[in-house]
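Re-run with default settings, no changes from the original entry. Doing this only to confirm the output is reproducible before filing.
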Amino acid sequence: MTQAQSIFVVAAVLLTAAAIGDLLRRRIANAFAVALLGLAAIRIATDFDPKSAAYDLAAGIALLLPMLLAWQRNYFGGGDVKLAFACALLVGHGGVLDFLVLTGLLGAVLALLLLAQSWAGRSLRWAAKTNASGGFSQPVGAAQVPLSVPYGVAIAAGCVLTLFLRSSIG
C-alpha cells in the first residue's frame, strides 16, 4: 500500500467517524480535525515542494476566512469550520475547488432531505390532531426547534470523494 493510499484510508475512517458524530450529536470532536491536520502535514512534507506547500496553506486559509465569517453568523458550527480547513489542507490546492463543489452539492442534498423529513413529520403530526368534527386543530409543537443541518457529514463526504477522485484520476 502506498503512502497516498494509507493517507486515504486513515482519512476516510476519521472522516466517517466525524460525520457519524455530527449526525448523531451535532458535534465534531477537535481530535478529528487535529488528526486530519496531521495527515495533511505528512502529505505536504512528503511532497518536498515548498511552493506547493505554500499554495496548499494559502488555499486552506482562503477557505478558512469565509468559513469563520459564516461561523460568526451561526451558519456553521465551529467543528464544521475546523473540519473544512483540515480537509482543504488534506486535499491540497489542486483539490480545493473539487472539494468545495462536492461539499456544496452534498450539503444542499442533505439540507433538502432534512427539510423534507421535517415537513413530512409536521404533516403527519398535524393530520393526527384532526378533531372529532373533521376540522383541524393547531399543529403540535407550534414553537418548533429550528432545523439543524449536520454539514460535517457533507464536508466529510466531499473530502473523501475528492481524495478518491483525485487519486484514481492522477
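Residues 70 and 129 are 39 Å apart (CA to CA). The chain has one domain: 3-129+145-169.
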